[in-house]
Amino acid sequence: MVVLILLALLLLFVVVVLAKTVRIVPQAQAAIVERFGKYKASLPAGLNLLVPFIDRVRYMIDLREQVVSFPPQPVITEDNLVVSIDTVIYFQVTNPVAATYEIANYIQAVEQLTMTTLRNIVGGMDLEEALTSRDAINSRLRGVLDEATGKWGIRVNRVELKGIDPPPSIKDSMEKQMRADRDKRAAILTAEGQRQSAILTAEGAKQSAILTAEGDREAQILRAQADREAQILRAQGEGQAIQTVFQAIHDGQPDQSLLAYQYLQMMPKIAEGDANKVWIVPSEIGKALEGLGSTMTNLQGIPKDATPRVRVDMGEPIQAAAADSSQAGAHAAVQEALAAARGAAVGSQAAAAAQPTDSEADSGPAVEPPLEPGS
Prior knowledge:
This protein is of the alpha+beta class. Helix content is 58%, strand content 17%. A hairpin with a 5-residue loop joins β7 and β8.
């Protein structure tokens, strides 16, 4: 029984000795070994053997890059405004021995050094410059921290400002300033738009007036040309009509009987009208017709020789038979009109002979019937 207890104690002692002798260090870490309270060595990653009960691992240092975010810190700017700035530090332990024995708590030391350096840098800037110079602040802060933490076995890789928060009153003023600036730019843009619109409207009105004037001018020119051409065509038409009528009269070869017949046809039209209340046919109608025939013979424009000198193109020529038949009909109508007029004159003379008056003595010679045209 005693032997078993001794064996158990011996086995326990062996296990403890092995635990104190063998030490496994993880990757990217370093173990600080002390012997009797004094630094002896730094154990690398892997399996390491120690002297039991003499050597012991005092610290385990992480060699990876570490990220530490510090809470916002109040900082006074050059224009006496208090702003809150929070930072983020990226650092890495390069010398585990210095990080262990040169500084008690390197994370707290980095935080305090960051806060003091940040106040020094931002204190020389106004608020506007501090808000727009983050890159410059980061560079200067990283340079100061890297220089100060070098002896601690720490390398500062990067410093970032997470946020710069001015006081609420300053935020309100900045918002008002930004709003006023935007309103100013909006007013400027609106004014420029109205100016461009007015310019374009004026140019459009100018072009419209020019085009309207040009259109009126061209329209007046075209109307004048149309009136001129219309007058020319009317004059040419009237001239051709007169020449055609004149040619037709000469082609028809009118005689005295036709002229007398035309005169008799015009007499009823002369009697028409409200002013002609009484129309008297004189007894000397035969002599008047005879005198009319003899007068028409010598009228200007009706030559004795009816053969025209210049022919006018009348289209299709008139057939000779049709012309003879029309002349025969006109001659017959003229003979009938002359006979009717002669009968009326004979009746009036008989009535005058039956009832003689005082005027017979003063009257001239008896009216002889007119000769037939062409006799």
